[in-house]
Each structure stands twice: as structure tokens, then as C-alpha cells.
Amino acid sequence: MALTGELFIGRERRETPRKFPAFDPASGRSLEPAFSAAGSAEVEAACALAHAAFDAYRELPPQRRALFLEAIAKHILAQGEPLLQRAHSETALPLPRLEGERARTANQLRLFAAELRSGEWLGLRVDPAMPQRQPAPRADLRQRKIALGPVAVFGASNFPLAFSVAGGDSAAALAAGCPIVVKGHPAHPGTSEWVAQAITAAAAETGMPEGVFSLLNGPGTELGATLTADPRIRAVAFTGSRAAGLALMGVAARRPEPIPVFAEMSSVNPVILMPGVLGSSAERLAREFAASLTQSVGQMCTNPGIILALHSPGLQTFLDAARTALANITPGVMLTAGIHRNYTQGVEHMLAHGAELIARGEAGDAENCGRAALFSVPAATFLEDRELSEETFGPASLVVRCATVAEIRRIIERLEGQLTLALHMDEADQPLAHGLLPALERKAGRIIVNGWPTGVEVCHAMVHGGPFPATSDGRSTSVGTLAIERFLRPVCYQDFPEALLPLELRAAELLRWPHRLDGERRLAKPG
Amino acid sequence: MALTGELFIGRERRETPRKFPAFDPASGRSLEPAFSAAGSAEVEAACALAHAAFDAYRELPPQRRALFLEAIAKHILAQGEPLLQRAHSETALPLPRLEGERARTANQLRLFAAELRSGEWLGLRVDPAMPQRQPAPRADLRQRKIALGPVAVFGASNFPLAFSVAGGDSAAALAAGCPIVVKGHPAHPGTSEWVAQAITAAAAETGMPEGVFSLLNGPGTELGATLTADPRIRAVAFTGSRAAGLALMGVAARRPEPIPVFAEMSSVNPVILMPGVLGSSAERLAREFAASLTQSVGQMCTNPGIILALHSPGLQTFLDAARTALANITPGVMLTAGIHRNYTQGVEHMLAHGAELIARGEAGDAENCGRAALFSVPAATFLEDRELSEETFGPASLVVRCATVAEIRRIIERLEGQLTLALHMDEADQPLAHGLLPALERKAGRIIVNGWPTGVEVCHAMVHGGPFPATSDGRSTSVGTLAIERFLRPVCYQDFPEALLPLELRAAELLRWPHRLDGERRLAKPG
Questions:
Q1: Has residue A513 been placed in a domain?
Q2: Would you say residue A15 lies in a domain?
Q3: For B229-267, what is each residue's pLDDT tens digit?
Q4: What is the dihedral of CA B271, B272, B277, B281, to 10 degrees?
Q5: Which of B178, B301, B369, B402 is catalytic?
Q6: Confidence class of residue B304 from pLDDT cuts 50, 70 and 90?
Q7: Which pLDDT score is estimated for B95?
Q8: Residues A187 and A251 placed together within one structural domain of the fold
Q9: DSSP conformation letters of B152-189
């Protein structure tokens, strides 16, 4: 398949006069072809199609949408090496990482297909009529969840497959029954075009209505704002910077009809090294930390950006071993020249704010290499300077040296919301860990024991979310099957004749799905 | 019990120098005693206590919080006639209505107690470790839902018991594990004090931590804004006007850390009279409509404010019968002089916008009587003038005369979000109803067949919510057990040692609760 640089407006491919280039960040050179930038006419056309497709798409039997998701996975995998090569050229992410990411993307689509078939997301509840009840009869009341409407999905720079055109947000929204209009990330438009081809092929193969998917590309922030403001868009899913997420939240809140924005924005993922384990295993922890910090050149939402530990010989051993480990890690090329520039400035910012430089990684010889940086400050300095707790996107981390457990506790209480908090501990640390747990729960969506935050399992129990500013809505997750709930709302049907009821709420069909009958949980009948 | 007019700051009763009166709307006279108005010092004190209580309260076994809710119900019922008398004096709502509302309030608390014991709200999910999995092992991942934090609950004027101090929002938030700071409605501060006494007694009796409940009173809008802005408040629950709801949404969005606002604001609850049933049963429908419209002097969130029907002899019969029925209904006194003034202006507004007056109720001889008003306009006029579709709080309704089914359809598509949409239909109307259903689902939280929107059952399948502006977040309900989900967020525990896990996620305890194991639904083991 040759890339054309065109947009996808439903089944139509469209070229526009305004073009923008893709770049290879390792060389700084632009890549062929030039890509069409979408304007308000393309937003209008894509949203009109998405709106027109909505009622038909959301009422398809769950099995039909499941087949669509599985077909997307199949078509992405069938694209083979050229997709990975293009993603590599546009992002400088290594091929093995991209291969893993592609597998995750396919598995994610299949997991949502399985979730669709489980019917859990339908949230069926039936409270049958009680015509004889005193003092007043009860009506027949039945509840199911339906899709919100067309969703604007924003591709993320750092996961060109797993959180981009057919990534987690797209899979969850499509599963819920929401047509999607994707705003592709301008740093990997060729990869986006490949994946859009796969979705379009899958939609045709499985007979989906036109408008269930569109892809709009463009540089700058105006396209995203225009899309978010469109009255036919009913929710936004976004992964990216705090500034960009806040801007979209503002646009959505100022609409005549405000809509929910699910933005995954900013997290420094503090890791607490407890005294017991630090005393016995500082070198191992330092090696693991260096690997986690520099994974994908630190360009992970769950990068360990802050380490909290007590002053101790163990901490000194940790810092020394981390210095050695980081010095031996070959730096990778960052996703874009802009991200590299911001990272470099972020490192300078830390120094300007009085953080002590403990270690640096190799400089690297390609363009835009992300050179690891490890800093340290005493807790008192950290507590005084809010900016030291802000995210530096890239392989930088800050060790906060605490004099007392009370200081660790005070820092946790002062933290903003986080995607993750991790505890390294041994048996002896357990009482201390127990005491910190309530505060950790208030601050994060996921709490990890003896592990590192990077690596997010796509499963049922995962939470990739957390209080603001980790996300705009801490009641949600953007990874795992619970992510589908972002795009659903409950509807109650009162005294409906059987023939008018949605299929899954009719007496016979209801038994095939998990439901609550007068509040009591019932399993789906097999078969 | 004598009323003191004091505030409730945790266990402390506090008087402030600034006082405001309660009024009897039927006479316009003020009622004893004068009530203390809360200022920023009281907001500070109540929020500090709520924050301090949060960790302990949310980690109580569900059974403990269930006993607390049941004790609140018991203490409210034990207050007997004086509570009802005070509520009657302050709201002019008839005693039988208040008696019914008290029963609903008690049942609501008990329903949430039962929901707590069911464990459904915990949302337990376990994906066990897979240490042998290739290419990488899977960690042990466990999810539960925890409370958001202290919630600001705003009492509503029109339900002094069921949507006020111990109403639906309070019951849902307390069940979820959230301490509440209630901003009492200034129109019924004496009723609020009675109920606050019941909650305080129940909290003491069942050993709840101090700070789980506070009651702040005050006139004006500043108190609510100050409370919503307090950083310790993590969510807001509100029922009231669109203007007040939008103002709170604005305050919440402008916080350094934005929080969710669940505001139930504005709905005209359109009722569609289908041609078949209108031809055969116009007189019955008119009588039922008149009763629904004037229930509680039309001061219901679910008041039928718009009727859609085709031009026909049946419609003329309906209008004539409604005129007769309304003329025979004795008007009630409205909740406050201000609500009466707004209602009177709303009726004039309809006339000024060209609506034809079809019928008026009796004028009544008490102060502040809400005189029913029925208007009619052709669909074309309605479609041209957005203001005709806005809510007039009180017993006013507008019949929109449609020339064609297409016109009905166009009006539905142009409607804002609604709490309810109702269809009156017979067998012959079914195909038409079927065609309208997708649009109805997009516009409302509850769809009713052959019933009237007033009367909201408190049960599992109820949805009292709907797209904006019916509510600020159409993914929620403020009535029924699903309302608890507004105040919960998921947390994931990764590789936790058994002893550190929350109780309900430990191996043995897990079996006692409904959960999903690797996605598969498991029922709670009895015993």
C-alpha cells in the first residue's frame, strides 16, 4: 500500500490544499508524502457522517461490533512489516517495541470484543411491575446503557499504535457503540494512515455504517478545538500534555451543551523506596529503576519521575548504582524535535530550581537523543517549590531525600493526582506501608508493590486513570475493559410493551445477559 | 425538640451573628426562630472535619455504613408529626404529600443500606498473576471502587425531605463512603434542622466518625460557591435551577483541581400524544394530564411542560377536557414567594412569545397561589422560538400542535436533553413509536409509555438523569441505586501482599462479594 496523505471522511478519501510534512526525528528529515490538513469543512463532513451513523451503529447486536473490532485487529496485523517500518521512521521507537505495541493493540481490540459479548457493559437492570403494591403500584422499569454519541479521539504521540488511531480510546468508544472521529497525531501521520486503512477495510468487511470512522489530520491546536466544539461530538478522549488537555476541557465546558472530556494528562508516578528493602536491595532497585526510567526514552505516561526515600546508606548505594546504570544506557531518539527541545528545557529547569544533578546518561550521536538525567533534592526544598513536582516528559527523575517518615507522608499529602504510586518494601516495611495506604489511595488510580510503574497491563482490573491532573475525571480509566463505561449512559424504559423494548431487555433475551432482577444479580444463561 | 437555628459543624452546634428568617409562604409571615448563616469560617471548619473523617469513614465495613443509613431513617420517622408540621409551614406542601415524601426518604436510605450489603457498588475485579506468561509475566491486579472524598450536597426547595438534608444525594454519598457537607435550602431551614438532628443522633448511635455530616445554612449564592471551591470537597450534588447549576459547574471547573458536579437542573419532560390513542381516549388523557401538571403545584422536576400532538379532532377534545379539568383544580400555595414571582413572570413570558392561552386554573385566595396555565402554539412557532421550550417552574404547560409526524420528529431532534420523555400510544401507534424511539433515547434518561412523568420510583432500574441541561452529566442518575456510582472511583492494586490488600480483595473475603475473576462474573457466596 502506498501512502497518499489523504484524510478519511467516512468512506471518502479527501485531499486538501493545506499540507504538512512528517519527519524522521533521528535525521530531522521530512518523509514522503505530504499530508492533507483538515479544516472546518472536513470536521463538518466527518461529524455529520458520524451523527448519521450513530443510531444504526449503536443498535447493532453486540456480536456485530465485536466482529468489527476483531477485523480491525486482523487487518492491522496483516499489514505486516511496512506498518512497523513507517511507525519506526516517524517515531524512532525501536522495531521490537513497536512489534510489542502492535500485539497490544490487537489484543486490546480483541479484549473489547470479548467484553462486548459478555454483556457486562449493558448494565441491565429490571424491576418488574407491582400492580398490587400499596399505597401506589410500581411501574415496570428496565434499564440498559447506551452509547453517548460520536466521540472525538485524539491520537497520542508516544503510542503510535496502542493509543492512536485504533488504540485504547478508539477500541473502547467503538465497543460502546460510538462512531469515532480521530484527530491523528501530527508526528506520525503515515502510521495513522496505515491504521485508518485497516479500520476502513474492517468496516467494509463487517458491514458497518458509513461514518463509524473518520480520520482528520493537521498540525496545530485549532483542528482539535474545532472538533471538540462540534455539537455532534458527545465526548472527547485525549492522551497528551496537561496544557493541551486543559485547553480541550475548556472548549468542552464552554460549549452551549458541555460534554465530558476524558483527558489523560500529567503524572510523575512517585516511587517510594521503603527503609527495609533499601537497606538490603539498593543495587537491584537502582538497576530496575534505570531500566524503567529509560524505557522508550522515558516517553511513558507512567515514567517514574519522582523517587521518595529516607536519608540512609542504602539511599547512597542506590544513587551510586543508578549513576553507573544510567551511564551504561545508550540513549534513544525522542519522538519529535519539539519533545526533545521541551525535555532539554525541562532538565535545565530542574537545575535552575536547585535540584542537584546526580547522574546523566550517554549523550548519543543521533539527532534528538534523550539523555537521561537523575536529580536529587532534600524534602524541604521539594515541599517549598511546587514546580519541582511537575512532569518532565522524558528520561528525567528526581530523588527526594526525606529525613523522616513524617516528611514522606507530608509529601504524599501534597502530591497532585497520579496515574500510579509504587512502593518498594519488604516484610519489615509492612507496618509503614499500611499507614501510608489511605493517602496513596486518595492520590492515585493504581498502587504497585515491588514493581515499577511502566508497563500497563490491558485487562479487566487495570486502572489507568487517577485524580486530576493525572486525568480530567478520576472516576475513569483509559486502559482495560472498564474504559468502555466512559462512553455509556443509562436509559430507563418505563412500562414498555414487549415489542417496543430494546432487544436485550425483552423477557426471553434478558436471560442471555448478566443482569440485576429487583437488585439481585443474575448470571447470563449459557447458550 | 425546639429549633435553635444553629448550624451543625460535625458534632458542634454553632450560632453566627448573621441571621436569616424562614417564611410561611401561605401567609408571607416569618417563622421562629431566626437561623444562623454560615460564612467562610464555617465552610472551613465543616470541610476540615469532613476531610479528617474521610479515610476512617470510607474504610468502615459496608455493614456499618448500612446501619448508619438505617438509623437515620429510624430517627426521622421517630420525629413524628412535628417534623411534618414544620415542613408544611415552610413549604405549604400538604401533609399527606409530606408524609409520602418522608416514607420515600426513609425507604431510600434503606435501599442504599441494602445496596451497600449487596457489594455490587464495590465493582470488584481480580486478574490473578500469570508468572509463566510469554513474552512477559502478568502481575496480580485487583480493582475495587473507593469513595471520592467529601461531597457538597445542595438541598432542593421542592423536596424538603426526599431531596434535601437526608435526601437521595446524601444517601448515595454517605453510602459510597463520602462524608457530606450539606448546604441546606434557605426556604426550609427548620425542616433541615430537624433532619440534621436525626442524622447527628444516628451518627452518634452507630459510632460514625465526627465530620461525616455537617449542615450549613445561608441565603444567597456565596455560601454554595465557597463550599464548592473548597479544595477538600471532591464532588457536588445539586438539584435546582439551570442558572444556579451552571454557576456551580463554573466554580468547579475553575478550581485548580476541577471536580465533578452532578447538577439536576432543567427539564420540560415532553409528552407525545400519538394519533391512535388521542382519537380514542382524549378525555381520559386530559384528566390525567391535569392531575400530573398540578401535582405539588407543578413544582416537580418531572412536570409535563410540553405536549406534542397532531392537529386533529382528538386534540381539540383533549384541549377542551383539559380546560374543564384545570378549572376545577384548587390551586396550591407555591414553595416561596420568589418561586411564585418567577412563575407569574414565566406565564407572562409565554404570552409575550405568542403562545395562545387555552386554560387557566382557579386563582386561589391564599398568598402565592400557583394558578395553572395551559398554552398552545403551532409547531412552526415553537421551532422558531427557542425560549418557548424553556422550563417554567410551576403548573404551566404548552401544547405544540403539529401538522405532520415529520414535524413531531423535527421538534424531538431540536429538544435539549430531558429527564423524561413520555409516549401515549395504542396498538395502532406502535410503528410510529418505534420510529421515534432512537431519537427519544438520545434525548432523555427515562422513556415512559402510557404514563406521566411525575412520580419517580426509587429502585434499581430508575434513571433520574439525562443529557444536558437535564443534568450536568448525562452519564448519571440522582435517583435509584445507580446514583451511588457518582461518588466512587476505581483503584487498582498491583502485586499486593495479602495482608496489605483491602479486606474485600483478599482471597477468602472476595468470595463473599460479587466480582469478576479474569472477567468472568461470579456471584457472592451466601453466608
A1: no
A2: yes
A3: 999 999 999 999 999 999 999 999 999 999 999 999 999
A4: 40
A5: B301
A6: very high
A7: 98
A8: yes
A9: EEEPPSS-TTTTSTTSHHHHHHHHHT--EEEE--TT-H
- Residue for grid cell 444553629: B6
* pLDDT (tens digit per residue) in A495-524: 999 999 999 999 999 999 999 999 999 999
Please answer yes or no on whether B490 and A482 come within 8 Å at the CB atom.
yes
Partner residue facing A451 (CB), from B139, B142, B521:
B139
Residues A85 and A42 in one domain: yes
Whether B19 and chain A come into contact, CB under 8 Å, resolves to no
User: Minimal CA–CA distance to A355: which of A310, A398, A411?
Assistant: A398
Residue in B with minimal Cα distance to A435: B500
8 A C-beta contact, residue B188 and residue B164: yes
Distance CA B160, CA B90 (A): 9
C-alpha cell at B265: 437542573
The burial of B13, by beta-carbon neighbours within 10 Å (0-12 exposed, 13-18 middle, 19 or more buried), is given as: middle
Q: Does A451 touch chain B (CB under 8 A)?
A: yes
Distances (CA, A) of B353 to A227, B376, B389: 35, 11, 11
Q: Are residues B60 and B98 in the same domain?
A: yes
Residue B462 to residue A118, Cβ atoms within 8 A: no
Q: Are residues B200 and B300 in the same domain?
A: no
Instruction: Name the residues of A annotated as catalytic.
Output: 264, 301
B17: contact with A, CB 8 A cutoff: no
Examine the fold and report which residue of B404, B433, B449 is the final residue of a domain before the chain moves on: B449
Chain B from 255 to 274: CB within 8 A of any A CB: 257-260
Written as one letter, the residue type at A14 is R
In a domain, A504, yes or no: no
A256 & A292 share domain: no
User: What's the mean pLDDT when you consider all of chain A?
Assistant: 97
Confidence check: pLDDT of A527 > 90: no
CA angle B421, B157, B419 (to 5 degrees): 15
- Asked if the Cβ–Cβ distance from B494 to A434 is below 8 Å, we say no
State whether B135 and A461 contact (CB < 8 Å): no
8 Å CB contact of A437 and B500: yes
- Asked whether residue A500 is assigned to any structural domain, the reply reads no
Of A223-227, A385-389, A407-411, B165-169, the poorest mean pLDDT is in: A385-389
Assess whether pLDDT exceeds 80 at residue A1. Answer: no
Contact B47, B232 (CB under 8 A): yes
> B264 catalytic, yes or no?
yes
At B365 the pLDDT is 86
* Domain membership of residue B143 as a residue range: 7-129+138-265+476-486
**Where in B268-322 does DSSP place strands (E)?**
271-273, 306-310
Same domain, residue pair B400 and B312: yes
Q: For residue range A253-301, list pLDDT tens digits in order.
A: 999 999 999 999 999 999 999 999 999 999 999 999 999 999 999 999 9
Residue B463 has its nearest CB partner, among A441, A492, A518, at A492
Q: Residue B472: list chain A partners with CB under 8 A.
A: 258
Same domain, residue pair A195 and A305: no
- Domain count for chain A, please give it: 2
Condensed to tens digits (0 to 9), the pLDDT of residues B70-100 reads 999 999 999 999 999 999 999 999 999 999 9
On whether both B415 and B438 belong to a single domain, the answer is: yes
Its pTM stands at 0.98
Catalytic residue, chosen from B264, B288, B407, B416, is B264
CA B160 – CA B87 distance, rounded (Å):
7
Identify all chain A residues contacting B123, using CB atoms and an 8 Å cutoff: 482
Q: Does A453 contact B at CB distance below 8 Å?
A: no
Chain A and chain B share a number of CB contacts under 8 A equal to 220
Neighbouring CB atoms inside 10 A of B104's CB total: 20
Interface of A with B in 121-180 (CB under 8 A): 123, 125-127, 135-136, 138-139, 141-143, 146, 148-149
